[in-house]
Automatic annotation (TrEMBL):
Lipid bilayer topology: Single-pass membrane protein
BP GO terms, sorted: lipid biosynthetic process; long-chain fatty-acyl-CoA metabolic process
Domain of life according to the entry: Eukaryota
A matching Pfam family: NAD_binding_4
One Gene Ontology term of the molecular function aspect: alcohol-forming very long-chain fatty acyl-CoA reductase activity
Reactions performed catalytically: (9Z)-octadecenoyl-CoA + 2 NADPH + 2 H(+) = (9Z)-octadecen-1-ol + 2 NADP(+) + CoA; eicosanoyl-CoA + 2 NADPH + 2 H(+) = eicosan-1-ol + 2 NADP(+) + CoA; (9Z,12Z)-octadecadienoyl-CoA + 2 NADPH + 2 H(+) = (9Z,12Z)-octadecadien-1-ol + 2 NADP(+) + CoA; 16-methylheptadecanoyl-CoA + 2 NADPH + 2 H(+) = 16-methylheptadecan-1-ol + 2 NADP(+) + CoA
Protein name per its UniProtKB record: Fatty acyl-CoA reductase
One term under GO cellular component: peroxisomal membrane
Protein location: Peroxisome membrane
Keyword Transmembrane part of the UniProt annotation: yes
Sequence segments annotated as region (Disordered): 1-26
Keywords linked to the UniProt accession: Lipid biosynthesis, Lipid metabolism, Membrane, NADP, Oxidoreductase, Peroxisome, Transmembrane, Transmembrane helix
Chain ranges of the Thioester reductase (TE) domain: 42-311
Length: 542
């Protein structure tokens, strides 16, 4: 049975709720005012969404006291080095302009979420317990091919442990958990409620403890059932785990759909990874990806990252100030409000990359999506595998290592994992998102804008594609003329190749068949007749 959201303004059950209620004064605070003087704890701050959250908090809530970031050392870098690198990146330019010393507010805390006690030192844990006012939990593994054990360890057990720490926080006002709109993608209509979990998390965790990896791998398809991957499955379990704490903590759950580049802030088109559609756009822009299985008419539920973060901060404010009695879920999606379809995305992505080409494209960008399996397999063969074979042959002949087939194999794996999401659509209810928008002051509605009715899709997609070029591939916009020249060269190579191929095939036929020769003479004489007719008529008109 689904948990039904109780209206927090409904007095029913107020007696049982022992947490302090907001006074009229606090209820009226603006979002930025609320964060003034607050200590905020963020997990996943080095990730795509975490970075945007840190940036927005520092820029638009400049009175925030401190941001405690749970970060792990990685790839030979200490957590401090990682945070230093992170805040040097272009995303933080605007914050740097406003306050050159903004880094003083950032307090990295060494933590590995899959370790017991989150591997936080006892001193750090005590410090956090004493001062944190609000938690944003963004960390997760978002890989679609993550082995179940690891996905559970991080997305479910990591979340449980963080909730354990949150319960120790004496001044905690809100716990905001970032989930995904696809946690319940086994349903077609998704309300802003926490659905019953596919399995009792405790039982699953206990079983996984004694099973070896091979057994877990074998039973994973049975366990995840009609969900496409371990990611959506464990995110559904995590929601349930979070909900279990709703009597003790003020909880908000944000469910974004497919998070894409920024729409407006800190500047349009910011993106820093290959996840979800970004990798597909880049592969298509480089002329590598020529086809993908997707439904032209299905809604492409992309949501800009700045919209998600604005909603997250607003939800943090609302949860802390209004203290809803149950965990409120916010479906952060675009499809029901301002729908755009995969077919339209394809058109705008392709035309954008023709206007602003990527450097050193493999072929001219020209991709199309299809939902037909046979047509898809045909294009895979003709447009992916055949050119890859040819290219690798040339590499071999010139003494280089073949690589194109390997790239295509990885690409095919990636797109096969994405096609579940691009081949169908879902309907999300967004009542709580609308309620939250109505609660904001007109000023906050501008500063923390999550009204996607104003989103102009063609403009957004153009900025998104340019963003992949500038921020993911680090290509310079001043090289666009050279990139265009390269595309022209590729077009000429293709024309020449096609002509040679046609002539070659035809010569083979002519050499072997009288009928082919007759057709050839007929076509040639017809062409001559047309030519002489046009020449004669143009001499007459002159
Ligand atoms: C025909 C073109 C027309 C264009 C218009 C049509 C577009 C249709 C797009 C459809 C997109 C649908 C997207 C749906 C997403 C649903 C999201 C659900 C929302 C969420 O809650 S979570 C966030 C989503 N999570 C992800 O996206 C993670 C997915 N990635 C993975 O699971 C792994 O990366 C993957 C794909 C299994 C590969 O793993 P692995 O082989 O171990 O290697 P790497 O991760 O190191 O990556 C290898 C190589 O592939 C590149 N890569 C990664 N992701 C993509 C991608 N989405 N598309 C293309 N390429 C990708 C990666 O950069 C690496 O490249 P290198 O050059 O560095 O080797
Ligand atoms: N991107 C999307 O399209 C969507 C994302 N979401 C949700 O949003 C949240 C953020 O996603 P996104 O920013 O895209 O993901 P990223 O993969 O970019 O970031 C994940 C973050 O989690 C941290 N992390 C991962 N494993 C651990 C660990 N063992 N210990 C400590 N930290 C860890 C990473 O740290 P490190 O840098 O050390 O690896 C990183 O900071 C996730 O909860 C995801 O489910 C929801 C819908 C869509």
């Amino acid at each position: 049975m689904a948990t039904v959201r109780r209206d927090e303004r409904d007095p029913v059950g107020e007696q049982a709720d022992t947490r302090p209620r907001p006074s009229d004064d606090t209820a009226m605070t603006s979002v930025a005012d609320y964060y003034a003087g607050k200590n905020v704890l963020i997990t996943g701050a080095t990730g795509f969404m975490g970075k945007v959250l840190v940036e927005k908090l520092l820029r638009c809530c400049p009175q925030v006291r401190a941001l405690f970031l749970l970060v792990r050392p990685k790839a030979g870098q200490s957590m401090q080095q990682r945070v230093d690198d992170m805040i040097k990146c272009k995303l933080f330019d605007r914050v740097r302009e406003d306050d050159a010393h903004f880094h003083r507010k950032i307090v990295p805390i060494s933590s590995e979420l899959t370790e017991p006690g989150l591997a936080i030192s006892p001193e750090d844990a005590d410090k956090l317990a004493a001062c944190v006012n609000i938690v944003f939990h963004c960390a997760a593994t978002i890989r679609f091919d993550e082995p179940l054990k690891h996905a559970v360890q991080l997305n479910v057990i990591g979340t449980q442990q963080l909730l354990g720490l949150a319960r120790r926080m004496r001044h905690l006002e809100a716990f905001i958990h970032i989930s995904t709109a696809y946690a319940n993608c086994n349903r077609k209509h998704i309300d802003e409620v926490i659905y019953p979990p596919p399995v009792e998390p405790r039982k699953l965790i206990e079983s996984l403890e004694w099973m070896d990896d091979r057994i877990v791998q074998d039973i994973t398809p049975r366990l995840i059932g009609n969900r496409p991957n371990t990611y959506t499955y464990t995110k559904a379990l995590a929601e349930y785990v979070v909900q279990q704490e709703q009597d003790k903590l003020n909880i908000g759950i944000i469910r974004p759909s497919i998070v894409g580049a920024s729409w407006q802030e800190p500047f349009p088109g910011w993106i820093d990874n290959f996840n979800g559609p970004s990798g597909v756009f880049i592969a298509a822009g480089k002329g590598i990806l020529r086809t993908m299985r997707a439904n032209n008419d299905a809604v492409a539920d992309l949501i800009p990252v700045d919209v998600v973060i604005n909603l997250t901060l607003a939800a943090g404010w609302y949860t802390a100030v209004h203290k809803p009695k149950t965990a409120l879920v916010y479906n952060c999606t675009t499809g029901g409000i301002n729908p755009f379809h995969w077919g339209e995305i394809e058109h705008h992505v392709m035309s954008s990359f023709k206007r602003n080409p990527l450097e050193q494209a493999f072929r001219r960008p020209n991709a199309n999506i299809t939902s037909n399996y046979l047509i898809y397999q045909y294009w895979i063969l003709v447009s992916h595998k055949f050119p890859a074979l040819l290219y690798d042959l040339v590499l071999r002949l010139t003494g280089q290592k073949p690589q194109m087939m390997r790239i295509f194999n990885r690409l095919h794996k990636a797109i096969s994992l994405l096609e579940y999401f691009s081949s169908q659509d879902w309907e999300w209810n967004s009542e709580n998102v609308n309620m939250l928008m109505a609660q904001l002051s007109p000023e906050d509605r501008k500063t923390f804008n999550f009204d996607v009715r104003q989103l102009n899709w063609p403009e957004y997609i153009e900025n998104y594609c340019i963003g992949t070029k500038k921020y993911v591939l680090n290509e310079d916009m001043s090289d666009i003329p050279a990139a265009r020249q390269h595309l022209r060269k590729l077009r000429n190579i293709r024309y020449t190749f096609n002509t040679v191929l046609v002539v070659f095939i035809w010569r083979v036929f002519i050499a072997r068949s009288q009928m082919a020769r007759n057709i050839w003479y007929f076509v040639v004489s017809l062409c001559f007749k047309f030519l002489s007719y046009f020449r004669a008529s143009s001499t007459l008109t002159n």
